[in-house]
Design a protein that fits this description.
Rossmann fold, four-stranded antiparallel β-sheet, binds adenosine-5'-triphosphate, six-stranded mixed β-sheet, 39% helix, 10 helices, 257 residues, binds magnesium ion
Length: 257
């Protein structure tokens, strides 16, 4: 059953069309991974879903209710049910791990200090970092920061977890650890997970379904086995690591020499 539906969604920034006609379902309880080249609109998709970016046309449904074009107060209610691990996933450097994880609880939920402490403890345990309440971001490795940021996202006990490039910049051991964690949390917390990644190995390992976006459309959606067997040339290029970089990236690379 579809928990989230994108129907004919359009999004442009000035003359640049990111989505011309986005149609995609996210089923309840699944791990759906979104793949696609840099600049294809993966982060934009997640941001449109939680109302950080407005859509230009079409409709987004969550739990059978239209959530595109709703008020900011209504989006606040959506964000209590749909939490996001951001691409940069920055922790607040001036707050210890406990206060970083408690942040959403204080902002979004009405909980006592005892309840907050208990929820923080549970959330840190879920990400494999029990007892790290008093540590400071400056003293943590990149992998640990990611996991604390993940504890912050799941602390509100969302129905949906969105992950934007959760493994980028991590060493192979931490990539595997985060990939395992995504599956573990999906099963243990009974959430629906949408994971955006460049990393084919992670996508193939953790996903119930994979969707590939290219030039504003979903050009493939199916299981990891169906992806491996796809003969769509764009899918093949991406899976085999020959995907062309987009213009923005090309310009950047050129200017960097
Ligand atoms: N707030 C914004 N204002 C203007 N353009 C934007 C904005 N956000 C995204 N874009 C543009 O929309 C396109 C899609 O961006 P998006 O960040 O979704 O790409 P992505 O697929 O997540 O790429 P990456 O893999 O590099 O993170 C890019 O061309 C980007 O420059
Ligand atoms: Mg992105």
């Amino acid at each position: 059953m579809a928990l989230i539906e994108f129907r004919g969604v359009k999004k442009a920034f000035g003359p640049k069309a990111v989505y011309r006609d986005l149609n995609l379902d996210v089923n309840e309880g699944e791990v759906l991974t979104i793949i696609g080249g840099s600049g294809q609109g993966k982060s934009v998709m997640l941001k449109m879903l939680i109302g950080l970016l407005e859509i230009d046309g079409g409709t987004i449904f969550f739990d059978d209710k239209q959530i595109s074009g709703i008020t900011e107060a209504e989006y606040a209610a959506v964000r209590r049910r749909v939490a996001m691990l951001f691409q940069a996933s920055a922790l607040f450097d001036s707050l210890n791990a406990k206060e970083n994880v408690a942040y959403g609880l204080r902002e979004q939920l009405d909980m006592s200090e005892t309840q907050i402490a208990e929820r923080v403890r549970e959330s840190l345990t879920y990400v494999g970092l029990p007892g790290t309440e008093e540590t400071w971001p400056a003293d943590l490795s990149a992998g640990m920061k990611k996991r604390i940021a993940l504890a912050r996202a799941l602390a509100i006990r969302p129905q949906v977890l969105l992950y934007d490039e959760p493994t980028t910049g991590l060493d192979p051991i931490n990539v595997t650890r985060i990939a395992d964690l995504i599956q573990y949390l999906n099963d243990t917390l009974d959430v629906t997970s949408v994971v955006v990644t460049h990393d084919m190995d992670t996508a193939l390992a953790i996903s119930d379904r994979i969707a590939m976006i290219h030039e504003g459309f979903v050009i493939f959606s199916g299981t990891p086995d169906e992806l491996r067997a796809s003969d769509n040339p764009q899918v093949r290029d991406f899976v085999e690591g020959n995907a062309p970089v987009d213009e923005d990236t090309e310009t950047l690379l050129r200017s960097a020499g």
